[in-house]
Specification:
Layout (H helix, E strand, L loop, with lengths): L1 E5 L5 E5 L7 H4 L12 E3 H7 L1 E8 L2 E7 L7 E5 L6 E3 L7 H9 L5 E3 L9 H8 L3 E4 L13 E4 L3 E3 L4 E5 L8 E5 L8 E5 L3 E2 L6 E2 L1 E3 L4 E2 L2 H11 L6 E4 L5 E2 L3 H16 L2
Parallel strand pairs: 7-8, 8-9, 9-10, 14-19
Antiparallel strand pairs: 1-2, 1-3, 4-5, 5-6, 6-7, 11-12, 12-13, 13-14, 15-16, 17-18, 19-20
Length: 268
């Protein structure tokens, strides 16, 4: 029995004798089937050819990403806290070296994930660190490997600890969520957004999409709802889901300006 992993998106599936016929996440119009068709691998095979890098993004914030690039190139963020570390978003590769390094950094108390393109091998990570996984109930149907470790929450905000809050934004998925870290950016506040709020190449601004690879925009009302969901929170910096995708300062202005620019363009 094997937990197969989709090569295109990196999602791990339940234990089975044969790989699934298809990956529902990749068949959805927000994602895609790879040019070579549906392909599968395993965690054991990835360990033979890949490794994880740890990069300090700022004090108490460590990026964890896989080299060579795997799936959509996503990376996770380990937020260190006296109240317990939080892993924001997840990657497919977990190996002994990664477990050792994460434990040296204080382990993981909780895992929270923005949306299905980052669910990856989240159950492997949860079991390795005895950490529950926080996912909005609106995304329950997109969990390909169900497990009791997953806590499906409802509502608009979920308090992880005194400085970290998960916020449901909707948009990219109905249950898309982001993480507000009040202590980040020297106390000015940080948002970790996956690609619900995507830091663009300009890196002063952001964008919002229903599908990024297939270039399907969100509606103006969906963008307004995303912006409204984060209005109560102070933040000066945004990390979206990949290394280098960082809006380093004046992020609140960047979001406000970008949202209006987006809506104006859609409504032409």
């Amino acid at each position: 029995m094997t937990h197969f992993i989709c090569i295109t998106c990196g999602t791990q599936f339940p234990d089975s004798d044969q790989h699934p016929a298809t990956c529902p996440i990749c068949e959805d119009e927000r994602q895609y089937i790879g040019h070579n068709g549906q392909q599968w691998t395993t965690l054991e095979a990835i360990r033979e050819t890949h490794h994880n890098n740890f990069i300090e993004e700022e004090p108490n914030l460590i990026g964890i990403g896989t080299e060579p690039r795997f799936a959509i190139g996503q990376r996770g963020l380990l937020v260190q806290s006296d109240e317990g570390n939080v892993l924001w978003d997840c990657i497919s590769l977990l190996d002994d070296e990664t477990i050792k390094k994460v434990n040296e950094l204080g382990g993981i108390d909780k895992i929270a994930i923005s949306h299905p393109h980052f669910y990856s091998s989240m159950i492997e990570w949860s079991k390795a660190f005895d950490a529950p996984i926080v996912i909005h109930a609106d995304n329950k149907d997109w969990v390909m490997r169900p497990d009791p470790a997953i806590e499906f929450w409802q509502g608009e905000t979920y308090q992880l600890n005194s400085t970290m809050t998960v916020v449901r934004t909707g948009g990219h998925y109905d249950g898309s969520q982001l993480l507000h870290w009040a202590d980040g950016a020297d106390g000015k506040g940080v948002l970790m957004t996956g690609d619900t709020i995507y830091v663009v190449s300009d890196r002063r601004y952001v964008s919002f999409m229903y599908s990024y690879p297939n270039l399907i925009p969100l509606s103006p009302s969906a963008v307004r709802n995303i912006v409204k969901s984060i209005e109560p929170f102070a933040y000066d910096r945004i990390y979206s889901g990949w290394f280098g995708a960082v809006l380093k300062e004046n992020a609140q202005h960047g979001v406000t300006y970008s949202a209006q620019r987006y809506i104006d363009a859609i409504c032409l």
